[in-house]
Design a protein that fits this description.
Chain lengths: ~180, ~270, ~350
Amino acid sequence: MTEEIIIAGFGGQGVLSMGKILAYSGVMQDKEVTWFPSYGPEMRGGTANVTVIVSDDRISSPILNEYDTAIILNQQSMDKFEKTVKPGGVLLYDPNGITRHPSRKDINIYKVEGVEEAAKMGNVKIFNMIILGAYLKLKPIVKIENVKKGLEKSLPERHHKLIPLNIQAIEKGMEIVNKAS
Amino acid sequence: MADLEKIMKEENIVYKKTKVLTDNVMHYCPGCSHGVVHKLIAEVIEELGIQDKTIGISPVGCSVFAYNYIDIDWQEAAHGRAPANATATKRLMPDKFVFSYQGDGDLASIGAAETLHACNRGENITMIFINNAMYGMTGGQMAPTTLVGMKTSTTPYGRNIDLNGYPMKMTEIVASLPGTCYVTRQSVHDAASVKRCKKAIKKGFENQAKKIGTSFIEITSTCNSGWKMPPVEANKWMEKHMFAYYPQGDLKDAERDNPDDYIKYIK
Amino acid sequence: MGELKLMKGNEVIAEAAIRCGCDGYFGYPITPQSEVMETLMARKPWETTGMVVLQAESEVASINMVYGGASCGKKVMTTSSSPGISLMQEGITYIAGAELPCLIMNCVRGGPGLGTIQPAQSDYFQACKGGGHGDYHLIVLAPSSVQEMNDFVNLGFELAFKYRNPAMILSDGAIGQMMEKVELADYKPRWTDEEIEKISGDWATTGKKANRKQHIITSLELDSEIMEKLNHKLQAKYKKMEEEEVRYEEIQCDDAEYIFVAYGSSARICQKSIQIAREKGIKVGLLRPITLYPFPTKPIQKLAEKVKGMLSVEMSAGQMVEDVRLAVNGKIPVEHFGRLGGIIPSPIEVVEALEQKIIGGK
């Protein structure tokens, strides 16, 4: 199994930390993982993206032409990454703020109302965990108990009390993800 | 010959070279201040009994070969970087005595940043600064400390402020830094000054054991060859001109600033 | 098995330094490697292992602090990125000239000048051919994963002390910034004074004992006859390294008709390119130099006997390719492919370059 994922959105949406939690969950499940971010000034308010690769084997390139899954959280990222999904692959997106919806017919497209649901749950910061939940529903590459362990490893101790809320958000994401028509 | 043997007895000795000074013949020009300062450092090391605990950092310049004359472990630093070598050496071996030995080009020009920052961090080291107002080794070029009007090979018509800027009072600058504990300006041109200078060097080394900050000892010096003067004349010239601009004596004798005094700025 | 963690390449350099018993780190912030000192400062190893960590006033000061620390027989290191490493070259040649062990990590970014903060491999010449003045070499290790960033800290120090020579980890912004699973080494205590005496007791400036001569650390010798001898001694050391310390990895070379030669992150990209090329029926393998100095000349010579061409893939305008060509010595075509200015080539671009420059060009 090798799963190559791009997660892309605005800086501040929790793109990098979501990738990190997914990668750490992979470590907890005894997988090989690579987390490769875009870095530099663009991190501050501009677009941010991260490649996450989870595999049973030694991982080759962190730079990829195409991905098994693209998780897209703003319009710029849609413009840039829709075309990079492998035929038959998955595109998961939050329609909030998207003006041009994905149009490819050779891939599987899913929607998750992450922004809306996070607001309903009363904490905008768990947005990225709702998205992660939606992804894990589509691609159950790591078990939820390992995601919990991943959260424990990647969050500082003082934030551990928030882990149940994060898990709740992941479960919510799993529940509300649906196939775009 | 027989008479000589009779005279050369332990009880007749009135002066003895410290064993911390090697028997190598010094390469310094006659009248140069380096030799005297080397001797003073060697004597201080012997008196404090720290020959096995002292590490010297020599510069690039006339005193690059200081390691040939003082019988301790030495590092020969890159030009201007002796305070960086000294910083790491002291931090990694805090129970050792570490001193840097630099000239004016090394310490005040190319190594100005390293000097200021070592002093500002309050490294528990002793810095010896030989200020003879010119680059000796490379043939008498202008140094930051060259006096106004002073002729050197790169200021053949005399140092001109518009062209070359002002003579740099490194010692005053260093005294203003909170990390220094003892900053003094000394000389070795007569018996009284040699005595005072030795006391200053000794204090600089003793401060290391107290861990109270950086000790900085300028020794205002002559460079007979570079100045193109016989030694006696050079000494007189130094007293008249150098001492006027570089006043002798202690600039600071305290402990490094109390870190607690700075906390109020955060609060 | 050691502790498993997900860490950035730069962070793991710090962690590995603490765990391998490093005595001192001296550095200056520069993107994309500032995480090294940040991690060290957050870890406060001076409270646990006693390791000294100091933010210096410049890269010039950092490398000369390393010079001072290395003179004392201590395990000391610094890290920086390209412009900072350029500033350090004076200190590095002094350290090489004075025959001192130390570790330097260059997290390469695109140049020349201030350049970019994105990954590049354009400091190969600087790292492998001297960099500063005089005839000298560094031992240059090229990690291509976060795990190797971890492993090469210890290996770098080992080789540095074995040869009394500075060692460099030539990383880049990609390896430094990426996170991967890493198995951390167990803690090794720092050397005691007695151990340092045993290892470096015949040269280190630890204070002159009554029963020994002075130890003088210097690269200065005004007598040309002696200076030439000292140079020959250095050259003999480099020759020994070339004979004994070459490290490399061959991937799918057994049946290969073409070879990528690539190190660091380029080698990672080439592994994907191999997959893509083989799906198209092109039999290509990868020779990955792990030591860039000493360079794996002989393994490349050997491969040149049986393959049709080689493509040196580097994020530079073509630097390592010169060493590949020297090894191959005209036997088969050798070309270079690379992107510049901080752009990382994609695996497909590399395959296309192979098709155009080597397969099509024969």
